[in-house]
Amino acid sequence: MKNRRREPAQPCPLCQGKTRVTGARKPAASIIERYYVCMDADCNHHFKTLTSVVGTVVPAKNGNNLDLFEGSDD
Ligand SMILES: [Zn+2]
Fold it and tell me: Where do the Zinc finger Ogr/Delta-type domain residues begin and end (predicted)?
């Protein structure tokens, strides 16, 4: 069996309970918005998170790299 690396689970910010992803959308090319619901029946909090690309860790081999934040210092 393949040992797949998983994202850290996002707990409920109110009760720290387990959550389930109910949906996601992509408002921009480098941003993912995820919708969650808390699995604790007494809480049932619905919330959303943003994941965004903030930089390069290892440059792309093909030279096609990010220019995030360029031109924002004017
Ligand atoms: Zn909760």
Answer: 12-56
Q: Ligand 1 centroid vs 32 CA: distance in angstroms? A: 22
Dump the DSSP string for the chain. ------PPP---TTT---EEEEEEEEEETTEEEEEEEE--TTT--EEEEEEE----SS--TTS----TTTT---
CA 16 to centroid of ligand 1, rounded, Å: 6
- Give the model confidence (pLDDT) of 40-61 as tens digits: 999 999 999 999 999 889 999 9
Reply yes or no on whether the pLDDT at 72 is more than 50: no
Residues in the 5 Å CB sphere of ion ligand 1: 12, 14-15, 17, 38, 40, 43, 45
* In the predicted structure, residue 27 carries a pLDDT above the cut 90: yes
